[in-house]
Write a structure and sequence with these properties.
GO biological process, one term (chain B): protein maturation
CATH superfamily of the largest domain in chain A: ATPase, nucleotide binding domain
Radius of gyration of chain A: 27 Å
Order of helices and strands of chain B: HEEEHEHEEEHHEHEHEHEEE
Number of domains of chain B: 2
CATH superfamily of the largest domain in chain B: PurM-like C-terminal domain
InterPro entries (chain B): HypE, PurM-like_C_dom, PurM-like_C_sf, PurM-like_N, PurM-like_N_sf
Family (chain B): Belongs to the HypE family.
Largest interface: A-B, 49 and 26 residues
CATH class of the largest domain in chain A: Alpha Beta
Helix content of chain A: 25-40%
Strand content of chain A: 15-25%
Number of domains of chain A: 5
Distance between the termini of chain A: 39 Å
Helix content of chain B: 25-40%
CATH topology of the largest domain in chain A: Nucleotidyltransferase, domain 5
Shape of chain B: globular
Protein name (chain B): Hydrogenase expression/formation protein HypE
Number of strands of chain A: 31
CATH class of the largest domain in chain B: Alpha Beta
Strand order of the largest sheet of chain B: 8-10-7-11-9-12-13
Oligomer: heterodimer
Shape of chain A: globular
Structural class of chain B: alpha+beta
Structural class of chain A: alpha/beta
Bound molecules: fe (iii) ion, magnesium ion, zinc ion
Organism (chain B): Orenia marismortui
Chain lengths: ~775, ~325
Amino acid sequence: MKKVRKKIKIKGIVQGVGFRPFIYRLASKQNLVGWVNNNSQGVIIDIEGESEKISSFLSLINSKSPPLAKIDSIELREVPLKGYDNFSIKQSSTNTEDITLISSDIVTCLDCQEEVKNFNNHRYRYPFTNCTNCGPRYSIIEDLPYDRAVTTMKDFKMCDSCREEYEDPSSRRFHAQPNACPKCGPQLWLTDNLGSELAVKDPLKQAIKLLKQEKLLAIKGLGGFHLACDGKSDTAIKELRARKRRPDKPLAVMMRDREVVKKYCYLNSREEEILTGIRRPILLLKRKNNSLPANISVDNNYLGVMLPYTPLHELLFEEGLEILVMTSANLSGLPLEYRNQGSLDNLKEFADYFLLHDREIKTPVDDSVSRIILGQETLIRRGRGYAPLAIKFAGLKETLACGAELKNSFAIAKKGYLFLSQHLGNISKLESYQNYQEVIKHLKEIYQINPELIAYDLHPEYLTTKFAQSQGGQKVGVQHHHAHLVSCMVENEVSDRVIGLAFDGTGLGIDGRLWGGEFLLCDYTNFKRVGHLEYVKMPGGEQSIKEPWRMAISYLYEAYGDDIELFTELIDIDEERIKKIVKLIKADINSPQTSSMGRLFDAVGVLVALGKFITYEAQVAIKLEASVISNEVGEYDYQIKNNDGHYIVNTTSLIKSIVNDIKLGVNKGVIARKFHNTVIDFSVAICKLVRRDYKINSVALSGGVFQNKILLEGIYQQLIAQDFKVYFHKQIPSNDGGLAVGQLVIANYQKGAKNDVHSNTRKSD
Amino acid sequence: MKIITMAHGSGGKLTEELIEGIFYKSFKNDLLLQANDSTLLSFIKGRLVATTDNFVVKPIFFRGGDIGKLSICGTVNDLLMSGARPLYITVGFIIEEGFEINQLEKIVESMAVTALKAKVKIVSGDTKVVERGSCDGVYINTTGIGVLERNIKLGGARAEVGDKIIINGSIGDHGASIFTQRGELEINSSLQSDCTLLNDLIAEILDNSNKVKVLRDPTRGGLATTLNEIAGQSKVSIKLKEEKLLIRDEVRSLCQITGFDPLFLANEGKVVVVVDNSESNRVLEVMRKNDLGREARVIGEVVEDDNNRVYLETSINGTRIVNALVGELLPRIC
Ligand SMILES: [Fe+3]
Ligand SMILES: [Mg+2]
Ligand SMILES: [Zn+2]
Ligand SMILES: [Zn+2]
């Protein structure tokens, strides 16, 4: 038999996922010799043996790789024989030449779950059980290559039995960096809200007892703290809402298992797959009945549900609890709490007790939120289990894209990859802005990025814009909706010009006005605005977002002029206030113009009496979607004005027909449905006009308004019926959480990146 | 009704009538009556301080003052902020053709009364008349000269970490009052402009403390702009506590309706005092004894941070970064 020796380089998500022991076992089985190690480029294998066995070894790498691994490429090089006498796993070495992908945090695997449930196992009821197939990754990593010494587990010295597992290539815990057991690993304890430890034997059992007594607990989990209470106690939920100053926004829940989920929610097979998968997002599921407390999800017939994803969470349900409210432990606009002391300082008024542990979180990661639309998982919030996202994309310079201000996430690029950070939330406050800067610094250090390009939004008052301006490197301002659409194009691997529909709240346009109902013709470099909603005023600027009834007045004023009598008849607001808002509009006092689709949804939501003020973003618009109950196929009138191939949707007759229906006492759900139909109809109509004008047949859909399932499905289906090719978001959020991807790619293309992306892009997950 | 005509600005007989009959009549003093091309001032011992300002306000007569009073207060207060004793003022008028003479008389009288109170002499002046439509009623320029007699060093660059920020009362009154009186919103508000002279208050502060670092009047651009200037000049950051700010209900409700931010509304009778922590209580007590400082309060402090920013700490919503306003305030919510 002919002997050969090969050097193999494997790139992708291959570290921290049990890849080296897998290679070790594979090589040993085939009697091959040499070694394997990790470096910052990925996994390197030096292997020697009979050529046939090496061939089968190579094919098995591909077909049998560990569940969490994601191979992007395998490079092979034949080298002279060396005469190794065994196969070994070598120490990690550092090499700055290339890049390794970071694995996300992963749900407890079945083997570990078994051990935790098994009375005879020494990890029985141990909340921090993990192995190479599961457990924390991104949230505990301080540096690469991934090794215990550069994670927050470095302070825990493994006991003999853990050490043995860690060093045994045949063990499931071989080089499982966070490996731990009750003897040597992290511990739980319970404190009151002053931080004094409760003298209890079993903090977990005590925590459960307190939850059952309707107490509120701050629970440190994988990527941060949750504020938790019994999901079946409306008293506890009411208290939680009051303390968190969150009167209406739906609360996420964790349910014991899929049987419980099925009891309260509809669950199709695709949903079940995502719900029970390795990433475990909060999944929006349709509620089945009204047996849960009404105050869990006030405005909505959907419920955000997740299953336990660490042994700690599993164990919370061992004494009969079925449902826990598990909401991120932070006040709206402030960053997620993730440090023991920080949470004791900042949450003492919210939680009665704190369930703490001593495994530090290096990088806070919020729970992800997703929804199944058109049979696809579409991410609303990209956090735990999904972050960081790596997209293969050739030809990018080292770049930082700063993102927007609400629902922020940022993106960086290096060596053929584009990385999208986890959801960082609203960063308009100092505390969240500091967190943003820390996470950027952390990822820049891990990947050793020194950005040549800094991409940012055109809005001068975003803190991300101010941050961009404080950075070195060439600054590139990117228009908000262009960035939305390019992020959708990148996700779908489309680089040819498309017709882009960008529907969102507001983003600054290049004419200084606030855009948000946009039809753009765009590619990775440029865009041309070919249509939009007619401008209306936003009386009082941001106040009109917090008080959507002002937008209703603005739309009514557009349609009817100064008709206070009608306005007071339609909107249950004090006449004097209505008059003042009309005066703001007339005198043009702090009333910027907007073409926003979000604001149109707000206005219509107010007209059909779904609320006048909001306590969370897009509340009225969300209620409008939720109120659709009919299969009504009718629609309202609208006009499309053609200004030289620039199509403007005039909403006057739309508003007037809605008002007529309201006066006739037509059911809200019917009006809501007809309104959705109308938006779908004019969107498709403009696509057809633009196709005629420019001979472009592809349409990309982006912007936060496309979180609306009825709208997305409607536009999608109608466009498909008209033979369009349609692209929408799945893994990258359509809201501002996905914006940075577009910013990053546009900045590169505007500054000279000229790659044929068709042959070069490939998603890594 | 007598009105200003182009002839009033021609330098002829009508101009003379205007000067003699209105300006000299109200402003008369030995220096002004020299009536030469320029005025010879007395010997001044000490370092001189100068400032100039143009006053454009609509409405010209407002609750709590008028453009005349404003033009004296503004310049006198600016002189006071450097620790000086105001001495002289020059005045320049640009008047629109058609402006009512009796209104002009009222404005001039109001300036004379204010100058008297401020113990400053109006020593020189000029008037131009412009065609109808070229200006809006009347614009006034005043230039002030004062003398620094105290042995103190004040300046925007002197704030240091640990210093306290004190203000003598509520914010936004002038801006809000002027806005409501323009009548576009037809708000019936009794809110007065805070337009006033700060001579006595400042003298009392400086008589009692030599550890005051900065004095500033937060006029156009409001408190936010003034504090950003100080932060930038001193290379420090400033942290305000939201609950310490005094904002009158009328100002609050105007802001609620319009989306304006009281931090950016103009004040015309306020002083921001940056004082060493060790003397902040003493300064506060002194201020509170004066009528104009009865509502004085510590609103924040200078903090360690090299971003040179102004922060507003709220009790529940975290800390807002208050930037100096550039241009329009556009919504940031997507
Ligand atoms: Fe957006
Ligand atoms: Mg001045
Ligand atoms: Zn496991
Ligand atoms: Zn152990």
